[in-house]
Write a structure and sequence with these properties.
InterPro entries: CE1759_FMN_reduct, Flavoprotein-like_sf, FMN_Rdtase-like_dom, NAD(P)H-dep_FMN_reductase. The protein has a single domain, classed as Rossmann fold, CATH 3.40.50. Helices cover 48% and strands 17% of the residues. The protein has 9 helices and 7 strands; from the N terminus they run βαβααββαβαββαααα. Strands 1, 2, 3, 4, 5, 6 and 7 form a 7-stranded mixed beta sheet that branches. β1, α1 and β2 form a beta-alpha-beta unit. The longest helix has 24 residues.
Amino acid sequence: MSATRIVVLSAGISEPSSTRLLADRLTRTVIDDLASRGVETDVSVVELRDHAHDIMNAMLTGFPPKGLAEVMERVAAADALIAVTPIFSTSYSGLFKSFIDVLDREAIEGTPVLLGATAGTPRHSLAIDYAIRPLFTYLHAEPVSTGVFAAADDWGQGADSVAPLQKRVDRAARELADAVAGRTAVERVDPFSPESYLGEGGSFESLLEGLGR
């Protein structure tokens, strides 16, 4: 069984970036959760800042440069996404939205997505649900129920004792792992195997036992 491909999109502008810090924490927790279920992962982290000029060129010309095209292919082939953006003017950043705009409309259809966002204050915590989630729903992706927002107070010594960021991270990571593990289990079922139409045991006897219940 091939490893589960997870692509992490971080739209942080500064370096170091709290957006990348949140993306890394989410990623580690998802990897650990999946590992506990026996699911191997192949993780690719994309700093959208590194592709900003190519994203703009793709918007202007309609043709992504080679480096950006490779990123877009990875995103389209991913089994799951972790997408984290800073909040500017009460919504996702322009860089984040621009990358989504140059993706093929069907690139992430049906893909489980864990959404994250960062900002200076908790006042923007609802941005995930009123701005970011509708964007991914429009693209027919499958965002997990819990989005993770981190404000400045969520970082630093003793922050988790005041605002339990890790609890939110754990819950969201578990939901993404559930979605990934569920898809993996479905893929493991061979539709032409005896078990798929004869029931557990793969014999006509087991089928007859089921009909007789």
